[in-house]
Design brief:
The complex is a heterodimer of chains A (206) and B (206). With 206 residues, chain A is α+β, with helices and mostly antiparallel strands. Chain A has helices at 10-22, 41-46, 65-76, 86-116, 124-145, 161-172, 182-192, 195-200, and strands spanning 2-4, 27-29, 54-57, 60-63. Chain A has a four-stranded mixed β-sheet with strand order 2-1-3-4, with helices on one face. In chain A, β3 and β4 (60-63) form a beta hairpin. The radius of gyration of chain A is 17 Å and the shape is globular. By secondary structure, chain B is an alpha+beta fold. In chain B, a hairpin with a 2-residue loop joins β3 (55-58) and β4. Chain B is globular and about 45 Å long. The chains are: A alpha+beta (206), B alpha+beta (206). The interface between A and B is medium-sized, with 32 and 31 residues.
Chain lengths: 206, 206
């Protein structure tokens, strides 16, 4: 099995983190941003959306990072990353979808503004709006984590993976205003104890 | 009985109403969101802190995020082929669901708001045309898939057709230029023969 995509991409990190949690072997090829590849015809034939990651396993090709994580967890993580209980499963999927619909889009401007834009080119109004949206989104996470130890249940599941990557990025920013959210901080501390999270997610912002 | 909270003109609510129709499920529905408001009330936010529609209450189990609700109901009441048992077909179906929220919805929103929710005299037609071209390029991606398979995930109608089936309805009925996408049209015509699609989706845009 091969994963195509640069290690610095949050979407690639979801897949690498999940694979490491399950101890699955794979090869990885760099693609995206400084590595290019995604604009080639060969890549478009695998992934017409031209983003990373793409999974290639023999004849089977899959893209969309959260769908890849669910696919791999269904195959290798039944009862661990992939909850057996139907309600816990749906709740895990819900937090994954919510990252795509809400948490991710809300975070885009603060991440691009502070990490990718040169200081003199920063749009501070957009950065502040994005900061406030992200803080409000982590309050939603905090309210869930007041009820359950992890997002979908009292166990770590694939539902923690997308939001966990955003938690790392959110707490890695220096000098920004952040409300104290005790449940998020407890959960984030627990994620940091996972070797797979440290190896594939806590790698700096790039 | 299953309770669905959300106005039936919302594309995200329509996903849930459509799958309920496919599954022959009975439900109660409460109008909420858009012109009905109510989604910012504390009692709704206690169920769905994200404050959007739909939310379901399935005998006390609360779930929000429309695509996760569709998969939860299909798993509980349907199964194969609607929710494919083949792991690769399932992965592809979920990929198209995720792509609708990650990529298609952000491209559709400015076209929909421009043409459906903005009075003609206030429309920025240049901005709408730029957005329409991007929307069309994504519809072309679906057409490319549908040149190879009968439905988006393979030979059968699956949950993977639901989010983008609603997008396709909006593509065809909005008053704008339409490039010719014959494979998309063939698939769309199949969807329009489904009673659940007619009932839940083929209604005036609002």
């Amino acid at each position: 099995m091969k994963i195509i995509g640069r290690k610095s991409s949050s979407n690639v990190q979801k897949v690498l983190w999940a694979l490491a949690e399950m101890g699955v072997d794979y090869e990885r090829e760099d693609a995206g941003r400084e590595f290019g590849v995604v604009d080639t015809d060969a890549y478009a034939a695998l992934n017409p959306n031209r983003r990373v990651p793409t999974l290639v396993d023999g004849d089977f090709v899959l893209w969309e990072s959260n769908a890849i994580v669910r696919h791999l967890a269904r195959e290798h993580g039944q009862g661990t990353l992939y909850p057996d209980d139907a309600q816990a499963l749906a709740s895990a999927e819900r937090w994954m979808d919510w990252q795509l619909t809400t948490l991710g889009p809300g975070f885009t401007n603060i991440f691009h503004g502070l990490v990718r834009d040169a200081p003199e080119k920063r749009n501070w109004d957009a950065i502040e709006k994005s900061r406030a949206a992200t803080e409000a989104n982590f309050e939603i996470v905090d309210a869930q984590l007041a009820k359950t130890k992890y997002l979908a249940s009292d166990d770590f599941t694939m539902g923690d993976i997308p939001a966990g990557i955003y938690a790392y990025r959110w707490y890695a920013f220096e000098g920004i205003e952040r409300k104290t959210l005790p449940n998020v901080e407890r959960w984030y501390a627990a994620l940091q104890e996972r070797p797979a999270f440290r190896e594939f997610v806590m790698v700096g912002l790039g | 009985m299953l309770k669905i909270m959300g106005r039936d003109t919302s594309s995200n609510v329509q996903k849930v109403l459509w799958v309920c129709g496919e599954l022959g499920l009975e439900y109660e529905r409460e109008d909420l969101g858009g012109p009905f408001g109510g989604n910012d009330r504390p009692e709704y936010l206690a169920l769905n802190p994200n404050g959007r529609v739909p939310t379901i209450d399935d005998d006390g189990y609360i779930l929000w995020e429309s695509n996760s609700i569709v998969r939860y109901l299909a798993a509980k009441h349907g199964g194969d082929p609607l929710l494919p048992s083949d792991i690769q077909v399932r992965g592809r179906a979920e990929r198209w669901m995720d792509w609708q929220i990650s990529t298609m919805s952000p491209a559709l929103v400015p076209v929909f708001w421009g043409l459906v929710r903005t009075p003609p005299e206030k429309r920025d037609m240049d901005a709408i045309e730029t957005a329409r071209k991007k929307f069309s390029s994504l519809i072309a991606m679906m057409d490319g898939q549908l040149a190879r398979t009968q439905y988006l995930a393979g030979d059968d109608f699956t949950v993977g057709d639901i989010p983008l089936g609603i997008t396709a309805y909006r593509w065809f009925v909005m008053d704008m230029e339409h490039e010719d996408y014959p494979h998309l049209k063939r698939w769309y015509d199949l969807l329009t023969e489904r009673k659940a699609f007619q009932d839940a989706v083929m209604n005036p845009l609002a």
